Structures are given as C-alpha cells and as structure tokens.
C-alpha cells in the first residue's frame, strides 16, 4: 500500500467523516420522528463503511462478520421503531 | 495495480455514501430524503464490499460478501417502506 492508493483510502475516511457529521445534523434537527429514523439507518450504513475501510487498512479479514451482524440489527431496529410508531394510539 | 483498483472502488463507494448524506440534509420532504438515502447508500456499500472482495481474494471472504450484498439489497427497501407506511398512517390520523 503506497503512494496514490494510500491517499485514496485516507481521503475516503475523510469523506465518511463528513457524511457522519451531516447525518448527525439531520438527526439533531429533523422535524419529525421519521426523519430521525431514516437518519439512524444512514448512520448505521456509514459505520459499516468505516469498518470495511478499517479492515483494508489493517489487512485483517475478521471484521467482515461485524458488518454482517450490523446490517441485520439495523434492519430489525428500523422496522421495530416504525412499527411501534404506527401502532401507538 | 490490484491495490490501485481496490482503492478506487473504496473511494467511489465513500463518495456515494457522502452523496446520500448530502441528500438527507438538503431535500425538503421525508419521501425525497428516503429516496436519497436508501438507493445511494446501497450502491455505496456494494462498491465497498466489491473492493474488499478483490483485496482479500479468498473464498471465505467472497461468500460473506455475497451474503451481505443480498441482505442489504433485500432489507433496505423493506425498511424504507416501513418508515413511509408509518408516516402515512400518522398523517392520516391528524
């Protein structure tokens, strides 16, 4: 890992950090609860991207299992919160 | 050469996730926000996983990558549909 490829990987970390800040802005501001749920879904995807980039950086393939579990938990959490909001009187 | 291809894939995946986040902040309505986040995020994660699969170059990783891609492409529309359905019900009640 040298030269241009290292610059590209570190700058993709930078892009993901900017994306995380923007998603947190919408999470703090969002007018309704549903905007916040969509923002939390996006935040889970950004964290998955972080873990994938980090596994390239330290050359360890063990971290892909975390992404597998995290995608399942993110889906279940989103469906649970929105179903609760739908059935609330 | 191989590592250059991997880093270009990772960079474009991150660019797509950033575009999804900008769409989440800039759009006016909940439906347009979900239109931005659901599609662009799925494609960004797909590019990242493709880069990972080329980088590690083993069956053990490739099977997990195919599993995660299938999982994300099946569950992201379901989650967005669930959010939109609950928003619709709440608007009807008011």
Percent in helix of chain B:
over 70%
List the quaternary state of the chains: heterodimer
What count of helical segments of chain A does DSSP give? 3
Biggest interface between chains: A-B, 49 and 51 residues
The main β sheet of chain A shows up as: none
Rg measurement of chain B, Å: 16 Å
Ends apart, CA distance between termini of chain A: 56 Å
Tags for this model:
heterodimer; A: 89 residues; mainly alpha; 3 helices; flat; B: 94 residues
Explain the overall architecture.
The complex is a heterodimer of chains A (89) and B (94). In chain A, helix 1 (4-29) packs antiparallel against helix 2 (33-57) and helix 2 packs antiparallel against helix 3. Chain A has helices spanning 4-29, 33-57, 64-87. Chain A has 89 residues and is an all-alpha fold. Chain A has one domain. Chain A is flat, with a radius of gyration of 16 Å. Chain A contains three helices and no strands. Chain B is an all-alpha fold and 94 residues long. In chain B, 93% of the residues lie in helices and 0% in strands. Chain B is built from three helices and no strands. In chain B, helix 1 packs antiparallel against helix 2 (30-56) and helix 2 (30-56) packs antiparallel against helix 3 (59-93). The longest helix of chain B has 35 residues, at 59-93. Chain B starts with a helix and ends with a helix. The chains are: A mainly alpha (89), B mainly alpha (94). At the A-B interface, helix 1, helix 2 and helix 3 of A face helix 1, helix 2 and helix 3 of B.
Tell me briefly what this model is.
The complex is a heterodimer of chains A (about 90) and B (about 90). In chain A, about 85% of the residues lie in helices and about 0% in strands.
């Amino acid at each position: 890992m040298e030269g241009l490829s290292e610059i590209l990987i570190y700058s993709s970390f930078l892009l993901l950090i900017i994306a995380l800040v923007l998603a947190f802005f919408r999470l703090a501001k969002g007018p309704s609860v549903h905007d916040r749920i969509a923002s939390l879904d996006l935040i889970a995807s950004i964290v998955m991207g972080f873990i994938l980039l980090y596994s390239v950086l330290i050359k360890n393939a063990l971290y892909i299992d975390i992404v597998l579990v995290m995608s399942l938990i993110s889906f279940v959490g989103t469906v649970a919160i929105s179903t609760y909001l739908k059935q609330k009187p | 050469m191989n590592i250059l291809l991997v880093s270009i894939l990772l960079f474009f995946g991150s660019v797509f996730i950033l575009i999804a986040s900008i769409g989440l902040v800039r759009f006016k309505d909940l439906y347009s926000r979900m239109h931005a986040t659901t599609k662009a995020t799925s494609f960004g994660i797909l590019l990242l996983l493709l880069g990972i699969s080329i980088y590690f170059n083993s069956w053990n990783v490739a099977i997990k990558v195919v599993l995660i891609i299938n999982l994300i492409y099946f569950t992201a529309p379901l989650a967005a549909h669930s959010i939109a359905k609950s928003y619709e019900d709440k608007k009807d009640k008011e």
